[in-house]
Amino acid sequence: MTSESAYSSSAENTAREYYNSDDADNFYYTIWGGEDLHLGIYEAGDEGIFAASRRTVDRMVGRLARLEPGMKLLDVGSGFGGSARHLARTRGCHVTCLNISEKENARNRKMNQEQGLAHLIEVKDGSFEDIPFPDNTFDVVWSQDAILHSGNRDQVVQEIARVVKPGGEVVFTDPMAADDAPAGALTPILSRIHLETLGCPGFYLSAAKEAGLTDQGFVDLTPHLVRHYARVLEESEKNAEALSRVCSSEYVERMKTGLGNWVEGGRKGHLAWGIFLFQK
Asked: How many CA atoms lie within 13 A of 55 on its CB side?
């Protein structure tokens, strides 16, 4: 096994263990509104996280050429499946959720059943570094703020390109380093999430081109990254009593420190976030 693949496995295992933990599962379920785990787009500074998160989904849909009933969409790193349910409900597409956390996937399946959407959504335990589907399977591949958890992001992009159909589209977001982030500037963030690097816009544009995808434009929404992590920190402090019933105090304090690092990194211009769109 090469050192790169060993690190890749380590990164994935770290992500799986983290998101399978009771602390993480309960924190995100309590603070993010119970449906989503991704960053939001805010129209007001004090807007609710759920509404802002849902706006991100709608903005991503708006970038696609089409998303119609019967089309097949793969959601890579799908979390609790909130985006998948919104897409299935509003667009009638068939969504496959691929996610590494069995605990999140269990919540996803339960909510799909409760909301009458299980016939449109399949939830698959698995890795986005080795997507368990044949070539040219999906009309759209979708991902929100998940690819950062890979130790081999080139491989993830290659796998996404492999499973999307010719003429199909790839749309995703990811918290990233700015292209010009100074060396060492993100050490507090990386240490907290147990990663060696983050991707950056230039990396994803290059990796997608290498994988045979054509760039359809990157929409830079970095200010919303800062606002989002600040809002999560605010909600964490506001809901301290509720969190104390479902999360350890040690976890909450570490999370608050980590959120502060994201906010500081964004305000200093060392981070980036936005919507990528590619076509095969």
From this structure: 16
- Report residue 44 as tokens: 């007001």
Q: How far apart are the first and last CA of the chain?
A: 31
- What is the full DSSP assignment across 93-115? -EEEEEES-HHHHHHHHHHHHHT
Question: E strands within the chain?
Answer: 72-76, 94-99, 121-125, 138-144, 164-173, 176-177, 214-220, 271-272, 274-279
Residue in 66, 71, 44, 65 with CA at minimum distance from that of residue 55: 44
Question: Does the predicted model carry a pTM greater than 0.90?
Answer: yes
User: Any idea what the CATH number is for the domain that residue 151 is in?
Assistant: 3.40.50.150
Tracing tokens 């070539």 back to the chain, one arrives at 135
CA–CA gap between residue 178 and residue 182 (Å, rounded): 9
pLDDT, residue 9, reads 56
The total domain count for the chain is 1
Polymer length in residues for the chain: 280
Handedness of CA 129, 95, 64, 165 (dihedral sign): positive
By residue range, what is the domain housing residue 174? Answer: 3-279
Residue 21 above 90 pLDDT?
no
pLDDT digits (tens, 9 = 90+) for 3-14: 334 445 577 778
Q: Which residue has 């749309």 as its token pair?
A: 171
